[in-house]
Each structure stands twice: as structure tokens, then as C-alpha cells.
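Sharing a chain and its predicted structure for anyone who wants a worked example. Both blocks are below, sequence first, C-alpha cells second.
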Amino acid sequence: MKNSKDSNLKQRLVRLLLEKSFKYSDEPVFRLASGKLSSYYIDCRKVTHSAEGKYLIGNIIFNMLQDLDVNAVGGLTMGADPVACPVSLISFLNNSNIASFSIRKERKEHGMKKMVEGDVKEGDRVVIVDDVITTGGSTIKAIEAVRAEGLEVVKVIALVDRQEGGRQEILKHVSDVEPVCTKSDLLEAYKKAVSP
């Protein structure tokens, strides 16, 4: 985070994630998409679809893009949609013009048969966003989909990095991968919240 305002926004986001999205158990009872069992589960949708969450996410990620010349942000629907859209709105409110886009899970079979939907065109510089990185598989799928349509991926930003190797896998495809917060941030905040 670049300054105290950014730090305050991140602290508010971590608090909101703890309140709405973070579940913890001493035993590994949460089954992940990968099939693994985990002691904690992070369902970011409760935050990414909340009004405060959109405000915080939009501002934090817009600030993370200040030094980049990018045309749009987006990723695989549905996880990336409520992350990308507030970034685009905040950019407009700050006299910038960063569009958002969605990547379909499967190519549609009618119309233009596009995988990437939104205000983007070949040659645009884009940032891939995601709600949670675990193995990195969905983010890598998003990178491959936009590259296939002629877009240049300059960065990946995840709301939460579960720190289970996904970031390292994504770094094999893009040189700049940055989480807004990590599992460690959430666990540290959780322990402070529950300690007597």
C-alpha cells in the first residue's frame, strides 16, 4: 500500500472479509474447489457484492493501477465481475477511463461467439483480477483467454491470496502478480479478534 489512506482502506477491507467471508475451524472441514480439505474458507462474494466492499475494492485496486498504463480490468465470470466493475467506476470518478470486462466460462455458440465481453479491443493493455487465488488455475485460464483475443496482460491482482502456490504458478505466465491481502493477513486479524 502506498500511503496511510491505502493502508486504512486495506484494514477496513480485512475487517469486512473477516466479518462476512472468512470461516475458520480447528479441523479441516471445508472442501475446496480443488477437492482438498482446509481449516478455513474464504467466500469473497459476500464482500464483493456488498456496497462497502465495492467501494473499498474499487479504490484499493484503482490505486494499485496508478503507475500502469492500462485500458481495462477483468477476469473469469463470476468471481472477477464484482471486483472489476467497481474499479472501472472509481477510475471514471477519478478522471481516468479504465473499462471492465468479463471472460465467459465457455465460448458462446451464437452472435459474435466471444469469450471476452466488454469494452476492450485487440492490443489493449489489461489487468486480470480474481477474488481468491488458490492453485491459480482460474486466473491462468483468464490470462490465456484474453491473450487469445489479442489483449496484453500487464498484471494480475487478487483480492485474497491463500498462499498455497497459486501465485507462483501464475508468475510463470505474468511477471507481476499482487494480492490485496493474504491468508496470513486474515489469520493474523482473526487471531487478534478472538484473543481475550
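Comments welcome. The chain is about 40% helix and 25% strand.
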